[in-house]
Design a protein that fits this description.
By secondary structure, the protein is of the alpha+beta class. The protein is built from four helices and six strands. The chain has a five-stranded mixed beta barrel.
Length: 153
């Protein structure tokens, strides 16, 4: 029994996540230069439709399907959503708090009041929180990365 427990411990310690190595998801990363999240958020029109690579702490993970993660920016209270098509990549909840290096296409869209209400209700249901539709005051610009590949360490 002791040998079995010892062997399991050795295997666990040898795993990439235990050793602090990155775990890859989706396509391999190809962009050489890392772009700051604050640059994308400050000048989204310059990045619209372009492939970028950003790095930051994972501050949230989709609880239903693992289809998105939020990457903390280099400035306080900034984050960028990295969204993949459902089922293409599934991020584990354990990614939260780890560092992510992600690559994707910058998407800048304007959400109408109705779209925001629908999205707000969906997110509230997903997170088990309340949503007040009256909190939506007008159209909103949404900036995200359409995810292609990620490394989490």
């Amino acid at each position: 029994m002791k040998k079995l427990v010892s062997a399991a411990a050795v295997l666990l310690l040898a795993s990439p996540l235990a050793a602090g190595e990155a775990r890859s998801y989706g396509k391999p990363l190809t962009v050489k230069e890392v772009t700051r999240v604050s640059d994308v958020l400050a000048h989204p029109e310059q990045y619209q439709g372009k492939r970028v690579k950003v790095e930051g702490a994972v501050v949230d993970v989709c609880k239903m399907r693992g289809c998105w993660i939020k990457i903390a920016g280099d400035k306080d209270f900034e984050s960028l959503t990295f969204k993949v098509d459902d089922g293409v990549i599934t991020f584990p909840m354990s990614a939260r708090g780890k560092t992510a290096l992600v690559e994707g296409i910058v998407s800048v869209t304007t959400q109408s009041v109705e779209e925001q209400k629908k999205h707000g209700e969906h997110m509230a249901k997903e997170q088990g929180k309340a949503f007040d539709p009256a909190s939506v005051k007008g159209p909103k610009t949404v900036i995200m990365l359409k995810g292609e590949g990620a490394e989490i360490r």
